[in-house]
Structure formats: C-alpha cells, structure tokens
Write a sequence for this structure.
C-alpha cells in the first residue's frame, strides 16, 4: 500500500529534477547566445571601423573580461552605482 506522503515526496523530487534540468537548459542557451553575440561583435566591429582591425585582440580580451566581471558580480547584493566595475 502506498501512503500519500510517499507519493507527495516523489512528486516533489520529480518537480525539483525538472526545475534543475530547466535551469541547466536556460544556462546553456544564455551562454551560447552571449558567446555567439560576442563573436559577432568581434568580427563585425573591425569590418566597420578600420582602426579597430589593428586591435582585434584588445576587443577579445575586453569582452572576456566583461563576461567574467559580470559573472563574478552576479551573486553579490551590493553593486556599484556607476555600473562600471574593474574589480569584484
């Protein structure tokens, strides 16, 4: 005989598993979109502005630093008022 408590518990575990899979999929999609847009900007900007073509690596490094700084500050409650952080 199955008790109602055990069925509710298994439903809760199934829901938690579904939420974890959903968050993993969202994280993958957002990461893919961010890297795709980053690559598009890195390739597009030197084609439009000729001077930037000489500094393509600078654009790549700054985009990676932007992603890293945004990721590291995502979990923090307090944020800078000017929105431009170099250190965490």
């Amino acid at each position: 005989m199955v008790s109602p408590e055990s069925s509710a518990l298994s439903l809760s575990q199934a829901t938690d598993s579904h939420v974890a899979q959903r968050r993993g999929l969202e994280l993958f999609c957002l990461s893919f979109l961010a890297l795709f847009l980053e690559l598009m900007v890195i390739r597009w900007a030197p084609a439009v502005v000729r001077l930037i073509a000489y500094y393509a690596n600078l654009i790549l490094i700054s985009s990676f630093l932007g992603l890293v700084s945004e990721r590291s500050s995502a979990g923090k409650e307090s944020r800078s008022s000017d929105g431009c952080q170099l250190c965490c």
